[in-house]
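Q: Sequence in, structure out?
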Amino acid sequence: MSSPDDVNQHTIAEFRANHGRVGGNFAGAPLLLLHTIGARSGQPRINPMMYLADGDRYLVFASKAGSDRNPDWYWNLRANPEVTIEVGDQNIGVHATELTGAERDEKYGRQAARYPGFAAYQQKTTRVIPVIALTPRDPASPTASANSSNTDSDDTPPDLPGRLKHMRRR
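A: Exactly. Output:
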């Protein structure tokens, strides 16, 4: 069995080789690569993760597959919110902000409706799974406007929610 680090490295390599697309459990899922600096180590980190387009923002979910602990990347963002993401072939400088209250609940609900595995993750844990908005630092960039056209689209492959239902993420 592969370690989570091995799976992440394979996913990162496949993402980059295929212009942001990967196969397996993530086939057809909207993925990005989140570049952070370790909160304690100061070392650069890269984590592949699903996102939800929301206007010019990219929303990511600190689910850690329903663990009672937040993923390390969440703490990295709290310590250093100015980060970079890779979406397709583009690198985008973003600022991370945690959503709260009704906005958090609405956005998490939208993700859980599209990908039922996220609803299962929330049911597995007593913590409220954080939702992080990654907002481009240059909102006038072509990437921001290209992403905003996807805000309400649902181009999810019909079988993707089933494939992701039991997916484990780091």
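The chain is about 35% helix and 25% strand.
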